[in-house]
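Continued from yesterday's entry.
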Amino acid sequence: MSQHAPSQQAAIAQTLIHTCTRFQVVNFFVSPGSRSTPLLLAALSHPQVRLHRIVDERGAAYAALNFARASSQPVAVITTSGTAAGNLMPAVMEADRAGIPLLLLTADRPPELLGVGANQTTRQKDLFLNLVRASWQLPTGNHETPALNEIARQLSECLVKLDHPLPGPVHINCPFREPFFLEAIDPPRITIPLRDAPEEPDLPDAILARVRSAKRPLITLGRIETVKEQSLLAPILQHLRLPIYTDIGSGFRLTQFPSHVSGLELIIQSTKFCPQPPDFVLHIGSYTVSKHYWQWLTSQSQTPQICQLSFRGESVNPMLIPTHYHDRLRPEQIASILQECTKLPANDWLTSTIPHTMSDMMENVSPPWLPPLMQQLPCPASFFFGNSSVPRYFQLFALPSQPQPVPVAINRGVSGIDGNLHSLLGWTLGNELPAIAVMGDLTFYHDLNALPFLSKLPFPLLIIVLNNAGGSIFYNLPIASHSEICDYWFACRDAVELPIPDLARTFNFQYHCIE
């Protein structure tokens, strides 16, 4: 090894961090570890970088993911080697499915320590290969190391894929040799070849022609991942005169606007009031929480035409309905198409079939805690929902009551119940708004080590834990008929008898119990 390798290693780490900032990656979530020291020192020395310390790597990745979701900017997570890198996997799976730009910087042992029994060592190169948009390993500091400009160029080839052509995670594996703790060096003077975004398709006029020719058009807003995307659509919705169905993950389910169809899930399950399905659906965003919605679309012999406008290339077709996809559209293009729809004549075919007493019916059957919560919701504020039953409660029963969009985050890409409290942490830091989190007891139980960090947030925070005896959603499935199996092996009722009052006192939360 060259005697200049330590300084060269520091220069490589600083080149990496400097290149990240050129791609708007300025927020780094860091977990403690020795092997990642060069990355931490390089980040600490860069004036644009903001560091966030999270002790648990799995939690750090979830926090970074949801910070990116809230801020609409790519975010990085730095880990040491070994299982620390493996702990990123759940959040990487979510970032892949949700199309969130999450940069994974995993420190590693140098190549000569692989396969020889070295401690805390595994094969980390391409660890997330099937889930990331790009994967690359930094060169180690030796006489064969490429020039810093060449390293920056190759890093740029990877980092541009955080956002283009399909947003998602990128992995850079970073082998470092000891010693790590080095004197700071001047940042390398490098020129980074920034890339323009790939060419996007022109605005498809055919979409407007399909909407115009439909007798029963419906605009569906599926899950919309980032606050930026939600904010682009928000001012347009007030002027649309076509019926609009919103998913709880869209950020608009709780918002009042003239053509908003609320209570649709309850209506389409009714044999008395169920309306005829649409003949054309303009679907914006990703998948929806409601399965009944998709069953309704396919309830007639002739299924509707569906045209999906995708922010991040995800296809939405769980019932295998023939669908026209327009993927890889920029948010501004989708907003432009929706803006053109405001010129179309009013069509109330769906809203006219829903009983005027629907709002009263929804309040009568909703969980008793939900209407008071919506009536006292601070403005502005944001929501974070755990998975399983909670988003379904809001999708079914929450009435649109807010004059402005309420940002909503759900880890709905692969619907895990782990890491939700750390996700709430990152979401709130990225939004810088008062936050309300609603989750079940089993979800809360999964991520208790986030509580000390949440208690130090500089923003008002309300966490609502539903004491639903563990995995209550399993009682809606056929296994519920075998109660002795369901209680123990699925709902885990005995495993989540948490001393929540004691936890609240320990971490300086106010606690209230609502019977």
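--- second protein ---
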Amino acid sequence: MNLTDTHCHLDMIEDAKIALLRAKEAGVGTIINVGTSIDASRQSIEIAEETDSVDV
């Protein structure tokens, strides 16, 4: 199954890489990462550029 998480805040998680791995193991293939500030949005973009399954 290929699920999509349509709203998350990976910048608020201590270890986003572990969260991404757990999401993949649970069948989540695409994640929409939302920023709540300019800095958080920049972090969201960085994560999306480094991770194929994450979009902003």
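Residues 17 and 40 are 16 Å apart (CA to CA). The chain is about 40% helix and 25% strand. Will compare against the first tomorrow.
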